[in-house]
Specification:
Adenylosuccinate Synthetase, subunit A, domain 2; Adenylosuccinate Synthetase, Chain A, domain 1; GTP binding; 10-stranded mixed β-sheet; Adenylosuccinate Synthetase, Chain A, domain 3; alpha/beta; about 425 residues; single chain; 12 helices; ligase; 3 domains; 4-stranded mixed β-sheet
């Protein structure tokens, strides 16, 4: 059976650990959207790995990693990431496939990213991801396969550099000092390091058929189409991105399981609406207990109570079969724990997640309160050790969103989790 793991919030839900754990039983793990703006942190035997481009499953010696066509790839960072992992004794390049159709990120994308961010603050990682997708859809992108033809590659880079230089000088009144020879030569040097990994990954996956885990980056609420637009990422970070990002037909996923990863509370990085955000000492306590600082940027994350309206939106649009709940232990210290069950807009109650940014910025969360359990759940691996009051909280979540909580993650360590059988959801009484 194939498995799809998606972020069910605004990213940073703990997908890295989940994929590292579950991919142990899979032959192939696929990344299919986003780029180095992703940051998946995994702790194995006390050693921390932070992956930005490589599929997290590559940390298993037997697993093949696939960078599919929907990603935008910064070759400089990819080569560095590969060498960092190989320096720890784990071979990578003989287990890695890179799509020949994937688009590339270059230094001029990062220059453009910083200029665009200055004009309209979104809160990007400044890794050049948005501009890479922008030029892709403007039909000015450069793909991995273009590196095989050096003359064509030179011509494409030259055209893009002239375009970005004109923007810098005539629109933003900024100097532009990037030289074509530097970009081309460095790119070709990096390509030499990974060219043996380049294949038609769609064909490879079609032939493989089974034993594949698809690893989403970012989260559903950052999806460019169904997220909190325009404060979103530049790709389909929900299940909508699967077919286009992998090059596989929709029927390929008809028998797959779809699980969404969600924290037991909510966080967000960057700008954009966040109805349950806590700008007080409670929010600070969530941030400190949860270590809520971006693995890609180091930025402190905005924190708040779990938003079940938003989570149900993610469940519906992804067709999720279950929720994997992470960081339950962060809530151990609270006397009272709240979840958002609706939004209030003036004299109206809204139970669906609105598309309008104007509405989302005006709504007030309607909360249901739970008494805190005030016991440690950190590192617990036996469901019998989860306090009754914590089960009340978990049960309410799954009843509200309509799918079971199938797993609890209780610490960053890969082996600290509790797997809950889906059948136990019957009657919504797994405590």
């Amino acid at each position: 059976m194939n498995l799809v793991i998606l972020g069910a919030q605004w990213g940073d839900e703990g997908k890295g650990k989940v994929v590292a754990l579950l991919s142990e039983n899979y032959e192939v793990v696929v990344r299919y959207q986003g780029g180095s703006n992703a940051g998946h942190t995994v702790v194995i035997n006390g050693e921390k790995f932070i992956l930005h481009l490589l599929p997290t499953g590559i940390l298993h010696p037997h697993t093949v990693g696939v960078i599919a066509q929907g990603m935008v790839v910064d070759l400089e960072l990819l080569v560095k990431e590969i060498k960092d992992i190989e320096s720890k004794g784990l071979r990578v390049r003989d287990r890695l496939f890179i799509s020949d159709r994937a688009h590339l990120v270059f230094p001029y994308h990062k220059i453009l990213d910083s200029l665009l961010e200055r004009k309209g603050k979104i809160g990007t990682t400044l890794r050049g991801i948005g501009p890479a997708y922008m030029l892709k859809y403007a039909r000015k992108g450069i793909r991995v396969c273009d590196l095989w033809d050096k003359d064509r590659f030179y011509s494409l880079v030259k055209d893009n550099l002239e375009f970005v230089e004109e923007l810098c000088k005539k629109v933003y009144c900024e100097d532009f000092e990037l030289k074509i020879e530097e970009v081309v030569d460095r790119s070709l040097e990096n390509f030499e390091e990974v060219k043996d990994c380049v294949i038609d990954t769609s064909q490879y996956l079609l032939e493989k058929r089974e034993g594949i885990l698809f690893e989403g980056a970012q989260g559903t609420l950052l999806d460019v189409d169904i997220g909190t637009y325009p404060y979103v990422t530049s790709s389909n970070s929900s299940a909508l991105g699967l077919s286009a990002g992998t090059g596989l037909p929709p029927k390929f996923f008809s028998n797959a399981k779809f699980y969404g990863v969600s924290k037991a509370y909510a966080t967000r990085v960057g700008e954009g609406p966040f109805p349950t955000e806590l700008k007080d000492s409670t929010g600070e306590l969530l941030r400190e207990r949860g270590g809520e600082y971006g693995s890609t940027t180091g930025r402190p994350r905005r924190c708040g109570w779990l938003d079940l309206v938003a989570l149900k939106h993610a469940v519906r649009l992804n067709g999720l079969d279950g929720i994997i709940l992470t960081k339950l232990d962060v809530l151990d210290a609270f006397d009272e724990i709240k979840v958002c069950v609706a939004y209030q807009l003036e004299d109206r109650i809204i139970e669906n997640f609105p598309a309008s940014l104007t509405l989302l910025e005006k709504v007030k969360p309607v909360y249901k309160s739970f008494e805190g359990w005030k016991e440690s759940t950190y590192g617990v691996v036996d469901r019998r050790e989860i306090p009754k009051k914590a089960w009340d909280y978990i049960n309410f979540i799954q009843e509200y969103v309509g799918v079971p909580v199938v797993m609890l993650s209780t610490s960053p360590e890969k082996d600290k989790y509790i797997w809950l059988k889906e059948e136990s959801y019957e009657g919504a009484n797994i405590g």
